[in-house]
Amino acid sequence: MKRTFLGEFEEIVLLTVAILGKDTYGVTVTQELEQKTGRAVGFSSIHTTLQRLEEKGFLSSRMGGATAERGGRRKRYFEVTALGRKALMEVKQVREELWGALPPDTLQLMGG
Amino acid sequence: MDTKNHTSKSALPPRWATTLLRWWADPYTLEEVEGDLVELYAYWMQTVGKRKADWRYALSALKLLRPFAKRETHYPTTYIYSLMIRSYFKIAWRNLLKYKLFSLINIVGLSLAIPSALMALIQIVNYYEYDNFHQDGDRIVRVITDENRKEGEEISWASSPVPLAKHIKENLAGVENSASIVRDSKWVLSNGIKTKNIQAFYADASFFQLFHFPLEKGAYPVEPKTIVLTHETAEWFFREANPIGNFLEHPKYGGFKIVGVLKPFNQQKTQFRTDVIVPIDDYLSLHDKTADWSTLNAHTFLKLAKGRTAADLDKQLSKTSTEINQLIGPTATKTLHFKAQNLADISPAKEILENDPYIQDLRSIYINLGFQLILILLASLNYINLTLARSMNRGREVGVRKVVGATKIQLILQFLTESVVVSYIALGIGLFLLWFIKNQIHVSWLTWDIDHLGYLILLFFVFNLLLGLVAGASPSLILSSYQPIKVLKGKVSPAGFGKIGFRKSLIIVQFTIALVYLFFMGHCYHQINYMANDNENFRRDDILTINLAGNRNKRFATDIHMLKEVQKIGYTSLNFGITPTYSGIKNTKNEPSKPAFYYATDHNFIENMGLKIVAGKNLAESNSETGSPMIVVNQKAVENLNLGSEQDAIGKLILLNDTLSATIIGVVANFCHYDYEHKIEPVVFQYQPSLFKVMCVKTNPVEDRIALEATLQNLWKKHNPYVEMNASWLDTDMYERYYPYEDMQFAGMEGLVIFVIAILGLIGILTYSLEKRTKEIGIRKVMGATAAEIIQLMSADFIKLLAIAAVIAIPLGIVVALFMNSYLVFNNGVSYLSMSFLLFIVLGIALGAVGYFSWKAAQTNPAKTLKAE
């Protein structure tokens, strides 16, 4: 199987884009992640990750129309592509398999 | 999430971070990144406060910089694409063709101005190539001298004491060879037939080991009283005959035997310009100077051993200086300090040194270039002016281009391309003109023989690029900053600089410069004409001088006296016009002699020369073979000897050359007998037949001089079968000597160029302003104005400008002429006639152009011009 590598941060960003749906651009992704993970995420890392995901084909983007806010600068909206969805599914599956392989009382021991 | 409400105008993100972002971030995503950051900044302001918001903003921006990343290539914002460049040239070319008259004016003006600037560049390159043809030139240094006078004055000399070269060679280590030369630019040599004022220098034999002046034949001079001639001098004296072994006579120092002839070399490319080279021992014996350390007459050259530098030598020289200063003696009023200067550093001189012949210093070189650049400046001002005049038409183009999306830089480049294209077309024509000048006109001060031709060509191209950029700079900046909305609405008037009327002042400036230059030329011509032709100083028309060839030729004189053309035959030691020899005069035995020029002549010579006798009488007529103690002097001699009035001087006894006591029997008015720049000095005429060298024959004004010469030749042959007769007409001699035809030709050309450029500028502005007033002319004609009225109206402005130029130029021209005359003791005054003639020509042609174009405009059919709107 051809394996598309998805880094941990990439996975989270991709997932966030999927969650946000229509109104996904740099700012919303940053804020969402900040709220969900509870830690300050650098905008620059979000931006570069979004770019990278698009290069890999997991995201597609389009420029929005000009608005009066933010000095008339347009926004770049992101959307998860079919490939991106497939990658997310794969990752989820791998995780679930791994969780499933875990002996039931191990976690409790570790947590103990 | 809606962030709109958070945006507050009072809090702005750090500007420097935004700027950095714009310069260095990925241009492909710049827009959304900037927007996102603005939004986030507002959000951060709300959540974490301004300080942290600033910090986060800056940090994010910094992290997004990618200074070394490759820019996205599919997003062109640059203007150096081959397509764009091609477009610049295409549009530039179309514009040239569209405005043919203006292009023609610009190109012609520039191409006329270019050759002289290029010539100045060639000259500068040549100055850097002086004396680069000597073997091991990098090891040759010249010793220069700083003289500190007791009074505190400091003088830097290029020269050094005569015995220094020998002293250094004997006493300093690391000096391989040394040579010294002593220049004497006032030599006179004669082969009995022809006499020539020449330049000489004395040099020791090692000079030829240090410097590369190969022999054509013979040997280098070593023995005293021997000389080596340059190729040209040998040819002048002996034509094809072999000069080796022949003698040339110096009026003071006697005969010199020719032992060698140098191969031809380009005198313009060396500081060792000369006609003959004499052994330095002759200088020492002729001038009786064996160990003179205090006069700095020599130029000392040293060849250092391998690996030694001028700096090494400097240290040794400071010790030598101390020794020499002791030799001069502590009582001397000066101390000398010797320094070494590399051969390559001599020309061009960074600082001006005394006694440094044929070396130009940097400052005067660049002043000369600057003068040539004025010409170029005038032509490029035409360009600027005409381009701005057309700014209306171009303004619309700029507006449309800007609306379609051209950036300012692109527009500037478009206009610069146009000016550069014009300048290179002009360079092409200019080079052609230069080639023409090279082949047709001899320019005495310039050598075309340049070693680094590639460098020169590069210099030409760079120069022209600069020219194009300079000429295009202001039009391109002004035109490219037009606001499209204004231009397209038709609200912009032609551009200019301020309100004083740049265009008008330009015409005034151009015509003033043209007029002043032409006045200057006119004055030069006036003075040269005076010097080259018969003038009041002495008669030169119909005077034939025949060289006596060592014998007085009395019987020949009797024979030619029979000819009806011959009026009077006189004798002299030297013709007027050549630097005469000095003698000393004084009143009494115990006072020092005063210098006076000395001529041995007879009665007839003074009459033939038409000298004005102001007191007493001429020398007595005599045919005797012995000299007479009766002398005639000029007014200056009377003044210098304090003899009172000219009348008082008659009959006074003076001492001539310390020994002969001579009686003044006549006084002649002061006159210029050889050099117009030279101050008036005493002159003595004495009857002394043993010194006669030249027969001076006054003839009738003869039509056929050649026939007369032939007749004389036959008679000469009868008495002197073995010697050629050598005769020449004084007026043609003097004319050839003083009339620098080729330089005049060049200077005249330059004057013409300035004038043509001025006229072209005038025509350009004239046609433009008439074009703009076409409608006005049409309406006036319809309303009943006559052609004459229209011509008057249209030309009034220009006539005013020309009048102002003339009013400024006339006093300037007079000042220039007076200034030049202050250097010439014998001058011909200021020629108001030639000035008014030139003024008449210049203004006549300018007014003719104004009149012609106005007339043409007045002839247009109003029905046609008004229909166009």
Task: State the helical fraction of chain B.
Answer: 40-55%
Strand content of chain B: 15-25%
Oligomeric state of this protein: heterodimer
Strand portion of chain A: 5-15%
Structural class of chain A: mainly alpha
Radius of gyration of chain B: 38 Å
Q: In one word, what is the shape of chain B?
A: globular
SSE sequence of chain A, one letter per element: HHHEEHH
Summarize the biggest pleated sheet of chain A: 2 strands, antiparallel
Q: Count of DSSP E strands of chain B? A: 22
Q: How would you describe this structure to a colleague?
A:
The complex is a heterodimer of chains A (112) and B (869). Chain A is 58% helix and 9% strand. A two-stranded antiparallel sheet of chain A has the order 1-2. Chain A has 112 residues and is mainly alpha-helical. The longest helix of chain A has 20 residues. By secondary structure, chain B is of the alpha+beta class. Helix content of chain B is 50%, strand content 16%. Chain B is built from 27 helices and 22 strands. In chain B, the strands form three sheets. In chain B, strands 1, 2, 3, 4, 5, 6, 7, 8, 9, 10 and 11 form an eleven-stranded mixed beta sheet that branches. A six-stranded mixed β-barrel of chain B has the order 14-15-20-17-19-18. In chain B, β18 and β19 form a beta hairpin. The interface between A and B is medium-sized, with 23 and 21 residues.
Walk me through the topology.
The complex is a heterodimer of chains A (112) and B (869).
Chain A lengths: L7 H13 L5 H12 L5 H14 L2 E5 L12 E5 L1 H20 L4 H6 L1
Antiparallel strand pairs in A: 1-2
Helix pairs in contact in A: 1-2, 1-3, 1-4, 2-3
Chain B lengths: L14 H10 L5 H19 L1 H15 L17 H17 L1 H29 L11 E10 L4 E4 L6 H8 L3 E16 L4 E9 L3 H4 L4 E4 L7 E4 L1 H8 L8 E4 L3 E9 L13 E4 H8 L10 E7 L5 H19 L5 E9 L19 H28 L1 H14 L3 H33 L12 H28 L3 H6 L12 H31 L10 E5 L6 H8 L4 E7 L8 E6 L7 E7 L2 H6 L4 E4 L13 E5 H6 L5 H4 L3 E4 L3 E9 L14 E4 L7 E6 L5 H15 L7 E3 H9 L2 H32 L1 H10 L3 H35 L10 H28 L2 H6 L2
Parallel strand pairs in B: 4-9, 6-8, 15-20, 17-19
Antiparallel strand pairs in B: 1-2, 1-10, 1-11, 3-4, 3-10, 5-8, 6-9, 7-8, 12-21, 12-22, 13-21, 14-15, 14-18, 16-19, 17-20, 18-19
Helix pairs in contact in B: 1-3, 2-3, 4-13, 5-11, 5-13, 5-23, 11-14, 11-16, 11-23, 13-14, 16-22, 16-23, 16-25, 16-26, 17-21, 23-26, 25-26
